[in-house]
Write a structure and sequence with these properties.
This protein has 266 residues and is an alpha+beta fold. It is 32% helix and 28% strand. The protein has helices at 59-63, 72-76, 109-115, 160-179, 183-190, 194-203, 227-235, 241-250, 256-265, and strands at residues 29-35, 44-51, 67-71, 84-94, 97-107, 122-130, 136-145, 209-221. Strands 1, 2, 3, 4, 5, 6, 7 and 8 form an 8-stranded mixed β-sheet that branches.
């Protein structure tokens, strides 16, 4: 039995290394506020945990790039929108706030399942688009055929040529709506489902549709990170400007720009 000599050295060393003091990992973490862009009515989304800066591991770097999924109902304070989730990506940390930007949208599972029924055609289309400020998105659209009010036949199936025509129309409208504006304006179109309503209107003559939705939006590519643009999104400077200018034109002499330039001259 000389083979086994010196094999079981570990046995004698009991209780030396095991006494590492366990500290609660949460003592080393901080809470940060997640801030949604000013497109949404409720800006305070929630909180996020991150380990404090220690050595080369910087807390803000640990936060950047995190993606949060938030129900649109919470962002808009409107329960009827609860079936859509918005993804927000943290792009910058300021103080104790994570500044996020729109990163995607999708439908809740139960909502999608509630739309799918028998005796109708389901039509889906997707398209890659680029907004004017350089974001590349993939939009997915879904729609269903509808029976006429006085229809007796149980089914409402579209012919494959009609389905193709509708799909073409879907892609066309999604492309048109998305390529004509900036990302933030596009998100403003998603919230009240303007694009779905447009498609419904346009396809009426091919085959009447119902429940037309942009069911999913993926962000494929973002332009180079621009802090001023993000600050604009969050300060509200880049928001509601159109409305204000209009009202100023209606009431002559009340342009906000004028009194400012007067001050400069003085």
């Amino acid at each position: 039995g000389e083979m086994a000599v010196g094999k079981n050295k570990r046995l004698s060393k009991k209780g030396k290394g095991a006494k590492k003091r366990l500290t609660d990992p949460f003592l080393k973490k901080d809470w940060y506020d997640i801030k949604a862009p000013s497109i949404f009515t409720k800006r305070q989304v929630g909180k996020s945990l991150v380990s404090r800066t220690q050595g080369t591991k910087i807390a803000s770097e640990g936060l950047k790039g995190r993606v949060y999924r938030v129900s649109l109902a919470d962002l808009q304070g409107d329960e009827s929108l609860a079936y859509r989730n918005i993804q927000l990506k943290c792009e910058e940390v300021q103080g104790k706030s994570c500044l996020t930007n729109f990163y995607g949208m999708d439908f809740s599972r139960d909502r999608l399942c509630s739309l799918v029924r028998k005796w109708q055609s389901l039509i889906e289309a997707h398209v890659d688009v680029k907004t004017t400020d350089g974001y590349v998105l993939r939009l997915f659209c879904i729609g269903f055929t509808k029976r006429h009010q006085i229809q007796i036949k149980k089914t409402a199936y579209a012919q494959s040529s009609q389905v193709r025509a509708i799909r073409k129309k879907m892609c066309e409208i999604m492309t048109r709506e998305a390529t004509s504006c900036e990302l933030k304006d596009l998100v403003l179109k998603f919230i009240p489902e303007l694009i779905g309503k447009e498609i419904e209107k346009a396809c009426k003559w091919i085959y009447p549709l119902q429940n037309v939705h942009v069911r999913k939006v993926k962000l494929l590519k973002a332009p180079r990170f621009d802090i001023t643009k993000l600050m604009e999104l969050h300060s509200g400077a880049g928001e509601d400007v159109g409305a204000k200018v209009k009202s100023a034109e209606d009431v002559p002499g009340s342009e906000p720009a004028n009194d400012w330039s007067a001050e400069v001259e003085a």
